[in-house]
Protein backbone atom coordinates (compact mmCIF):
# COMPACT_ATOMS: atom_id res chain seq x y z
CA UNK A 1 0.00 0.00 0.00
CA UNK A 2 2.71 2.49 0.96
CA UNK A 3 4.40 2.21 -2.43
CA UNK A 4 1.41 4.12 -3.78
CA UNK A 5 0.50 6.15 -0.68
CA UNK A 6 3.89 7.81 -0.04
CA UNK A 7 4.39 9.25 -3.55
CA UNK A 8 0.70 10.17 -3.45
CA UNK A 9 1.19 12.16 -0.24
CA UNK A 10 4.13 13.96 -1.87
CA UNK A 11 2.12 14.79 -5.00
CA UNK A 12 -0.82 16.16 -3.00
CA UNK A 13 1.61 18.27 -0.97
CA UNK A 14 3.20 19.69 -4.13
CA UNK A 15 -0.04 20.47 -5.96
CA UNK A 16 -2.03 21.82 -3.02
CA UNK A 17 0.39 23.31 -0.47
CA UNK A 18 3.25 24.40 -2.74
CA UNK A 19 1.56 25.30 -6.03
CA UNK A 20 -1.70 26.69 -4.60
CA UNK A 21 -1.63 27.65 -0.91
CA UNK A 22 1.94 29.00 -0.73
CA UNK A 23 0.90 32.08 -2.73
CA UNK A 24 -0.84 33.42 0.36
CA UNK A 25 2.26 32.84 2.49
CA UNK A 26 4.48 34.83 0.10
CA UNK A 27 1.83 37.39 -0.88
CA UNK A 28 3.13 40.44 1.10
CA UNK A 29 6.61 40.09 -0.42
CA UNK A 30 5.26 39.30 -3.91
CA UNK A 31 2.97 42.34 -3.80
CA UNK A 32 5.84 44.57 -2.72
CA UNK A 33 8.22 43.29 -5.41
CA UNK A 34 5.72 43.44 -8.29
CA UNK A 35 3.79 46.51 -7.02
CA UNK A 36 0.48 44.66 -6.96
CA UNK A 37 -2.65 46.33 -5.64
CA UNK A 38 -5.01 44.56 -3.23
CA UNK A 39 -7.50 43.98 -6.03
CA UNK A 40 -4.82 42.51 -8.30
CA UNK A 41 -3.65 40.18 -5.53
CA UNK A 42 -7.22 39.08 -4.93
CA UNK A 43 -7.78 38.51 -8.64
CA UNK A 44 -4.71 36.27 -8.85
CA UNK A 45 -6.11 34.24 -5.96
CA UNK A 46 -9.41 33.97 -7.85
CA UNK A 47 -7.59 32.86 -11.01
CA UNK A 48 -5.95 30.02 -9.08
CA UNK A 49 -9.36 28.99 -7.71
CA UNK A 50 -10.82 29.13 -11.24
CA UNK A 51 -8.07 26.78 -12.44
CA UNK A 52 -8.83 24.40 -9.55
CA UNK A 53 -12.54 24.42 -10.39
CA UNK A 54 -11.96 23.91 -14.12
CA UNK A 55 -9.63 21.00 -13.39
CA UNK A 56 -12.19 19.34 -11.10
CA UNK A 57 -14.87 19.63 -13.78
CA UNK A 58 -12.62 18.10 -16.45
CA UNK A 59 -10.83 15.51 -14.28
CA UNK A 60 -13.19 12.58 -14.90
CA UNK A 61 -13.22 13.30 -18.65
CA UNK A 62 -9.43 13.35 -18.90
CA UNK A 63 -9.09 10.20 -16.78
CA UNK A 64 -11.59 8.44 -19.05
CA UNK A 65 -9.92 9.63 -22.27
CA UNK A 66 -6.33 9.06 -21.14
CA UNK A 67 -5.55 7.31 -17.83
CA UNK A 68 -5.42 8.10 -14.13
CA UNK A 69 -1.64 7.69 -14.14
CA UNK A 70 -1.20 10.22 -16.90
CA UNK A 71 -3.48 12.76 -15.21
CA UNK A 72 -1.49 12.42 -11.96
CA UNK A 73 1.70 13.14 -13.91
CA UNK A 74 0.09 16.08 -15.70
CA UNK A 75 -0.87 17.44 -12.26
CA UNK A 76 2.76 17.38 -11.18
CA UNK A 77 3.90 18.88 -14.48
CA UNK A 78 1.52 21.85 -14.25
CA UNK A 79 2.63 22.50 -10.67
CA UNK A 80 6.28 22.43 -11.78
CA UNK A 81 5.73 24.68 -14.82
CA UNK A 82 3.45 27.08 -12.96
CA UNK A 83 5.86 27.59 -10.07
CA UNK A 84 8.79 28.10 -12.47
CA UNK A 85 6.66 30.77 -14.15
CA UNK A 86 6.05 32.43 -10.79
CA UNK A 87 9.78 32.62 -10.11
CA UNK A 88 10.28 34.53 -13.37
CA UNK A 89 7.14 36.71 -13.19
CA UNK A 90 7.77 40.41 -13.73
CA UNK A 91 4.24 41.71 -13.34
CA UNK A 92 0.56 41.02 -12.83
CA UNK A 93 -0.19 39.22 -16.10
CA UNK A 94 2.70 36.76 -16.06
CA UNK A 95 2.04 36.00 -12.40
CA UNK A 96 -1.69 35.45 -13.04
CA UNK A 97 -0.99 33.06 -15.94
CA UNK A 98 1.57 31.17 -13.85
CA UNK A 99 -0.85 30.94 -10.90
CA UNK A 100 -3.53 29.55 -13.23
CA UNK A 101 -1.21 26.85 -14.57
CA UNK A 102 0.01 25.99 -11.07
CA UNK A 103 -3.57 25.70 -9.79
CA UNK A 104 -4.67 23.12 -12.36
CA UNK A 105 -2.87 20.22 -10.68
CA UNK A 106 -4.74 20.60 -7.40
CA UNK A 107 -8.03 19.97 -9.19
CA UNK A 108 -6.86 16.98 -11.21
CA UNK A 109 -4.76 15.12 -8.67
CA UNK A 110 -7.30 13.95 -6.05
CA UNK A 111 -9.79 12.42 -8.52
CA UNK A 112 -6.93 10.84 -10.46
CA UNK A 113 -5.37 9.33 -7.36
CA UNK A 114 -8.71 7.90 -6.25
CA UNK A 115 -8.72 6.01 -9.54
CA UNK A 116 -5.08 4.92 -9.08
CA UNK A 117 -5.97 3.60 -5.62
CA UNK A 118 -8.99 1.75 -7.04
CA UNK A 119 -6.86 -0.06 -9.60
CA UNK A 120 -3.73 -0.56 -7.47
CA UNK A 121 -4.91 -1.52 -3.96
CA UNK A 122 -7.07 -4.28 -2.54
CA UNK A 123 -10.58 -3.18 -1.58
CA UNK A 124 -9.83 -3.47 2.16
CA UNK A 125 -6.92 -1.01 1.77
CA UNK A 126 -8.62 1.63 -0.37
CA UNK A 127 -10.26 3.75 2.34
CA UNK A 128 -7.00 3.91 4.30
CA UNK A 129 -4.97 4.57 1.17
CA UNK A 130 -7.21 7.42 0.02
CA UNK A 131 -7.32 9.16 3.39
CA UNK A 132 -3.57 8.89 3.99
CA UNK A 133 -2.83 10.30 0.54
CA UNK A 134 -5.15 13.18 1.39
CA UNK A 135 -2.85 14.19 4.29
CA UNK A 136 -0.36 15.41 1.70
CA UNK A 137 -1.94 18.85 2.04
CA UNK A 138 -0.89 18.99 5.69
CA UNK A 139 2.57 17.61 4.98
CA UNK A 140 3.01 20.30 2.35
CA UNK A 141 1.73 23.05 4.65
CA UNK A 142 4.22 21.98 7.33
CA UNK A 143 7.05 22.01 4.79
CA UNK A 144 6.07 25.32 3.19
CA UNK A 145 5.91 27.23 6.48
CA UNK A 146 9.66 27.11 7.27
CA UNK A 147 10.47 27.79 3.60
CA UNK A 148 8.30 30.92 3.74
CA UNK A 149 10.09 32.05 6.91
CA UNK A 150 13.57 31.49 5.45
CA UNK A 151 12.87 32.87 1.97
CA UNK A 152 10.36 35.59 2.91
CA UNK A 153 12.53 38.33 1.41
CA UNK A 154 13.69 36.12 -1.50
CA UNK A 155 10.36 34.58 -2.47
CA UNK A 156 11.59 33.70 -5.97
CA UNK A 157 14.15 31.31 -4.49
CA UNK A 158 11.39 29.79 -2.39
CA UNK A 159 9.48 28.94 -5.55
CA UNK A 160 12.66 27.60 -7.16
CA UNK A 161 12.95 25.16 -4.24
CA UNK A 162 9.27 24.23 -4.56
CA UNK A 163 9.71 23.64 -8.32
CA UNK A 164 12.70 21.35 -7.73
CA UNK A 165 10.68 19.35 -5.19
CA UNK A 166 7.78 19.20 -7.68
CA UNK A 167 10.06 17.76 -10.38
CA UNK A 168 11.44 15.11 -7.99
CA UNK A 169 7.89 14.21 -6.92
CA UNK A 170 6.83 13.94 -10.56
CA UNK A 171 9.71 11.52 -11.22
CA UNK A 172 8.84 9.49 -8.08
CA UNK A 173 5.20 9.09 -9.12
CA UNK A 174 6.16 8.15 -12.67
CA UNK A 175 8.22 5.30 -11.22
CA UNK A 176 5.71 4.24 -8.55
CA UNK A 177 2.44 4.20 -10.51
CA UNK A 178 2.34 1.32 -12.95
CA UNK A 179 0.51 1.48 -16.25
CA UNK A 180 -2.78 -0.33 -15.79
CA UNK A 181 -3.68 -3.05 -18.27
CA UNK A 182 -7.26 -1.81 -18.20
CA UNK A 183 -8.55 1.40 -16.66
CA UNK A 184 -11.85 0.88 -14.77
CA UNK A 185 -12.96 4.32 -15.98
CA UNK A 186 -12.84 3.33 -19.63
CA UNK A 187 -15.63 0.81 -19.42
CA UNK A 188 -18.02 2.92 -17.39
CA UNK A 189 -17.19 6.60 -17.56
CA UNK A 190 -19.10 7.24 -20.77
CA UNK A 191 -22.31 5.88 -19.22
CA UNK A 192 -22.38 8.36 -16.36
CA UNK A 193 -25.60 10.38 -16.29
CA UNK A 194 -26.31 13.65 -14.48
CA UNK A 195 -29.57 12.12 -13.26
CA UNK A 196 -27.50 9.93 -10.93
CA UNK A 197 -26.44 12.96 -8.89
CA UNK A 198 -29.74 12.93 -7.00
CA UNK A 199 -28.62 9.86 -5.09
CA UNK A 200 -25.51 11.76 -3.91
CA UNK A 201 -27.45 14.88 -2.86
CA UNK A 202 -26.70 14.47 0.86
CA UNK A 203 -22.97 14.19 0.20
CA UNK A 204 -23.11 17.29 -2.01
CA UNK A 205 -25.00 19.30 0.62
CA UNK A 206 -22.68 18.15 3.41
CA UNK A 207 -19.59 19.07 1.38
CA UNK A 208 -20.97 22.54 0.62
CA UNK A 209 -21.71 23.03 4.33
CA UNK A 210 -18.27 21.94 5.51
CA UNK A 211 -16.63 24.05 2.82
CA UNK A 212 -18.68 27.07 3.90
CA UNK A 213 -17.98 26.75 7.62
CA UNK A 214 -14.25 26.05 7.15
CA UNK A 215 -13.67 28.93 4.73
CA UNK A 216 -13.47 31.56 7.46
CA UNK A 217 -10.61 29.68 9.10
CA UNK A 218 -8.54 29.30 5.93
CA UNK A 219 -9.10 32.91 4.88
CA UNK A 220 -9.13 34.90 8.12
CA UNK A 221 -7.57 32.92 10.99
CA UNK A 222 -4.10 34.47 10.61
CA UNK A 223 -5.59 37.96 10.23
CA UNK A 224 -7.65 37.33 13.35
CA UNK A 225 -4.51 36.43 15.30
CA UNK A 226 -2.49 39.43 14.18
CA UNK A 227 -5.27 42.02 14.42
CA UNK A 228 -7.20 40.84 17.49
CA UNK A 229 -4.89 38.55 19.47
CA UNK A 230 -1.72 40.63 18.81
CA UNK A 231 0.26 37.76 17.30
CA UNK A 232 3.46 38.61 15.45
CA UNK A 233 3.97 37.50 11.83
CA UNK A 234 6.30 34.71 12.94
CA UNK A 235 3.88 33.72 15.71
CA UNK A 236 1.02 33.42 13.25
CA UNK A 237 3.28 31.38 10.95
CA UNK A 238 4.01 28.96 13.80
CA UNK A 239 0.25 28.70 14.30
CA UNK A 240 -0.08 27.82 10.59
CA UNK A 241 2.62 25.15 10.82
CA UNK A 242 1.01 23.62 13.92
CA UNK A 243 -2.29 23.47 12.06
CA UNK A 244 -0.63 21.70 9.14
CA UNK A 245 1.22 19.23 11.36
CA UNK A 246 -1.99 18.34 13.20
CA UNK A 247 -3.68 17.64 9.89
CA UNK A 248 -1.43 14.63 9.35
CA UNK A 249 -3.36 12.95 12.18
CA UNK A 250 -6.46 13.34 10.00
CA UNK A 251 -5.07 10.47 7.94
CA UNK A 252 -6.70 8.10 10.41
CA UNK A 253 -10.05 8.89 8.78
CA UNK A 254 -10.06 5.63 6.82
CA UNK A 255 -9.42 3.59 9.97
CA UNK A 256 -12.07 5.49 11.96
CA UNK A 257 -14.64 5.05 9.19
CA UNK A 258 -14.02 1.32 9.10
CA UNK A 259 -14.45 1.04 12.87
CA UNK A 260 -17.43 3.29 13.67
CA UNK A 261 -18.98 3.79 10.24
CA UNK A 262 -19.16 6.76 7.89
CA UNK A 263 -22.17 8.35 9.61
CA UNK A 264 -20.67 8.56 13.09
CA UNK A 265 -17.29 9.55 11.63
CA UNK A 266 -18.95 12.44 9.79
CA UNK A 267 -20.70 13.69 12.93
CA UNK A 268 -17.48 13.42 14.95
CA UNK A 269 -15.67 15.48 12.31
CA UNK A 270 -18.36 18.18 12.34
CA UNK A 271 -18.16 18.47 16.14
CA UNK A 272 -14.37 18.81 16.15
CA UNK A 273 -14.43 21.34 13.29
CA UNK A 274 -17.04 23.41 15.14
CA UNK A 275 -14.98 23.28 18.34
CA UNK A 276 -11.95 24.62 16.46
CA UNK A 277 -13.87 27.76 15.44
CA UNK A 278 -15.15 28.36 18.96
CA UNK A 279 -11.82 27.87 20.73
CA UNK A 280 -10.09 30.36 18.41
CA UNK A 281 -12.26 33.12 19.91
CA UNK A 282 -10.88 32.50 23.42
CA UNK A 283 -8.02 35.02 23.98
CA UNK A 284 -5.46 32.62 25.45
CA UNK A 285 -2.44 31.05 23.66
CA UNK A 286 -3.31 27.54 24.83
CA UNK A 287 -6.83 27.83 23.40
CA UNK A 288 -5.58 29.34 20.15
CA UNK A 289 -3.06 26.58 19.48
CA UNK A 290 -5.63 23.98 20.54
CA UNK A 291 -7.86 25.50 17.86
CA UNK A 292 -5.09 25.06 15.28
CA UNK A 293 -4.71 21.41 16.23
CA UNK A 294 -8.46 20.73 16.15
CA UNK A 295 -8.95 22.47 12.81
CA UNK A 296 -5.95 20.78 11.20
CA UNK A 297 -7.13 17.34 12.25
CA UNK A 298 -10.82 17.91 11.44
CA UNK A 299 -10.34 19.50 8.00
CA UNK A 300 -8.06 16.76 6.68
CA UNK A 301 -10.26 14.16 8.38
CA UNK A 302 -13.37 15.56 6.69
CA UNK A 303 -11.80 15.89 3.23
CA UNK A 304 -10.60 12.29 3.57
CA UNK A 305 -14.10 11.29 4.61
CA UNK A 306 -15.56 12.98 1.51
CA UNK A 307 -13.13 11.04 -0.67
CA UNK A 308 -14.38 7.80 0.90
CA UNK A 309 -18.01 8.96 0.65
CA UNK A 310 -17.57 9.86 -3.02
CA UNK A 311 -15.87 6.58 -3.95
CA UNK A 312 -18.60 4.60 -2.19
CA UNK A 313 -21.30 6.47 -4.09
CA UNK A 314 -19.54 5.90 -7.41
CA UNK A 315 -17.66 2.59 -7.10
CA UNK A 316 -17.42 2.18 -10.89
CA UNK A 317 -16.06 5.70 -11.39
CA UNK A 318 -14.44 6.82 -8.12
CA UNK A 319 -12.88 9.87 -9.76
CA UNK A 320 -16.39 11.20 -10.45
CA UNK A 321 -17.35 10.91 -6.78
CA UNK A 322 -14.18 12.65 -5.59
CA UNK A 323 -14.50 15.41 -8.20
CA UNK A 324 -18.11 15.97 -7.17
CA UNK A 325 -17.40 16.14 -3.42
CA UNK A 326 -14.36 18.41 -3.81
CA UNK A 327 -16.21 20.67 -6.27
CA UNK A 328 -18.99 21.01 -3.67
CA UNK A 329 -16.41 21.83 -0.99
CA UNK A 330 -15.01 24.52 -3.28
CA UNK A 331 -18.42 26.06 -3.84
CA UNK A 332 -18.99 26.23 -0.08
CA UNK A 333 -15.56 27.77 0.49
CA UNK A 334 -16.07 30.38 -2.22
CA UNK A 335 -19.44 31.49 -0.85
CA UNK A 336 -18.20 31.28 2.75
CA UNK A 337 -15.15 33.47 2.17
CA UNK A 338 -17.32 36.27 0.78
CA UNK A 339 -19.86 35.93 3.59
CA UNK A 340 -17.12 35.85 6.24
CA UNK A 341 -15.54 39.06 4.95
CA UNK A 342 -18.89 40.87 4.97
CA UNK A 343 -19.70 39.62 8.49
CA UNK A 344 -16.28 40.61 9.88
CA UNK A 345 -16.56 44.10 8.36
CA UNK A 346 -20.07 44.65 9.68
CA UNK A 347 -19.68 42.94 13.09
CA UNK A 348 -16.39 41.58 14.46
CA UNK A 349 -14.01 38.62 14.21
CA UNK A 350 -15.38 36.77 17.28
CA UNK A 351 -19.00 37.12 16.20
CA UNK A 352 -18.14 35.99 12.67
CA UNK A 353 -16.27 32.87 13.85
CA UNK A 354 -19.00 31.95 16.35
CA UNK A 355 -21.67 32.44 13.67
CA UNK A 356 -19.83 30.16 11.26
CA UNK A 357 -19.46 27.60 14.04
CA UNK A 358 -23.23 27.65 14.60
CA UNK A 359 -23.92 27.30 10.88
CA UNK A 360 -21.44 24.44 10.57
CA UNK A 361 -23.04 22.61 13.48
CA UNK A 362 -26.40 22.57 11.67
CA UNK A 363 -24.93 20.26 9.02
CA UNK A 364 -24.44 17.52 11.61
CA UNK A 365 -28.04 16.48 10.93
CA UNK A 366 -27.49 15.62 7.27
CA UNK A 367 -28.07 11.98 6.36
CA UNK A 368 -25.01 9.98 5.41
CA UNK A 369 -26.49 7.39 3.09
CA UNK A 370 -23.87 5.64 0.96
CA UNK A 371 -26.05 3.98 -1.66
CA UNK A 372 -23.75 3.07 -4.52
CA UNK A 373 -24.45 4.71 -7.86
CA UNK A 374 -23.35 1.93 -10.21
CA UNK A 375 -23.33 3.16 -13.76
CA UNK A 376 -23.22 -0.39 -15.07
CA UNK A 377 -26.33 -1.41 -13.11
CA UNK A 378 -28.15 1.76 -14.12
CA UNK A 379 -27.41 1.19 -17.79
CA UNK A 380 -28.53 -2.42 -17.54
CA UNK A 381 -31.74 -1.39 -15.78
CA UNK A 382 -32.48 1.21 -18.43
CA UNK A 383 -32.03 -1.40 -21.16
CA UNK A 384 -34.73 -3.65 -19.74
UniProtKB/TrEMBL annotation:
Transmembrane annotation, as ranges: 43-64, 71-89, 95-118, 130-151, 157-174, 194-218, 238-257, 264-282, 288-309, 321-343, 349-366
Keyword Iron part of the UniProt annotation: no
Where does it reside?
A: Cell membrane
Matching entries from PANTHER family are given as:
CHLORAMPHENICOL EFFLUX PUMP RV0191, PURINE EFFLUX PUMP PBUE
Q: Which residues form the Major facilitator superfamily (MFS) profile domain?
A: 5-372
Q: How does it sit in the membrane?
A: Multi-pass membrane protein
A GO cellular component term found in this entry reads:
plasma membrane
The organism sits in which domain of life?
A: Bacteria
Keywords (alphabetical) are:
Cell membrane, Membrane, Transmembrane, Transmembrane helix, Transport
**Where is the signal peptide, in residue numbers?**
none
The molecular function GO annotations come to: transmembrane transporter activity
Protein name in the entry: Permease
Record-linked InterPro entries: MFS, MFS_dom, MFS_Efflux_Transporters, MFS_trans_sf
Pfam families, sorted? MFS_1
Amino acid sequence: MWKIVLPGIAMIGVTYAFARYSFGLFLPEISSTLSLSESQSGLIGSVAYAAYTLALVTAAIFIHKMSARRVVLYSGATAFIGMLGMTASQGFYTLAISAFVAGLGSGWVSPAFSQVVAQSLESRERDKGNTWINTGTSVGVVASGPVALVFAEQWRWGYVLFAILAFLTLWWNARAIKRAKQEPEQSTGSKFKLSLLGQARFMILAAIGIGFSSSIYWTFSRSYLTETHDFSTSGSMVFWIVMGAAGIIGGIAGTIIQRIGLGWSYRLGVLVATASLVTLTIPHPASIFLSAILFGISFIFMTGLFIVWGTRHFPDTPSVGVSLSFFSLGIGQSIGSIAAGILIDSMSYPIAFLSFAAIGLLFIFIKTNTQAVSTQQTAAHAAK
